[in-house]
Amino acid sequence: RRYRKKSSNGVKPGYYTDDTQMSLAIAEALVAGDPWTPHALAERFVAVYHRDPRPGYARGFEEILKQCKNGDDFLRLIRPDSTRNGAAMRSLPLGILPTIAKVKEYARIQARLTHDTETGISSSQAIGLITHYGLRKQGKLARLIPFLTRHVPSIDWKTPWTDPVPLDGIGTVRAVVTLLTNHRALHELLRASVGLTGDTDTAACLTLGAAVCFPEYRRNLAYGLINRLEDRKYGRRYLISLNNRLFSRKVT
What we know:
Distance between the termini: 39 Å
């Protein structure tokens, strides 16, 4: 019903974390029509961090961001060999792209910037395809797992995830799909995402971000969670504005 006390990693009540900030970088790049290149994306990642630093980043990744002044610095310093869920957590906006092939291409390019591994790329493509499936009305939610099995066959989608949400990209997206298929309301998804324990902010970010792309989920989050979301320069009103621009722009 409301935001509670400050969390153990320093996040203030009602403030979002690195998951949302990195998603903003992707959404802003799409809205602006940036060339979908490693350099242009690196520029976005550095810019969104420095304008409004957020908690939640992996320590090593945040240290790189702190040292970078521009995209060139980022490309020089980054070691893109991670198998963690950072590439997946920022892929939600890619579902707005017009075709499955485009979603997979953009997801692959942005993942390779930091997660140039099979795990990083597959998990990024999976999240983009989930939102694409919902937004482009590719089918009923009950057919989501067959859809993912067809387009990202390297991941076991049929075995339900029951463990804490890991930092690993594959485990994270499997947890997200299990949550999405077991619940039909936003408040249930939020509670269940936290209930799994582990990387709960990523689980909640991805499950709720994906769910609002489908008409089958009840939009029943408590009003206080929306109304009391932080509203600084890049807070609630900015998020709403960027969302509107993303959906009003014809992304090709």
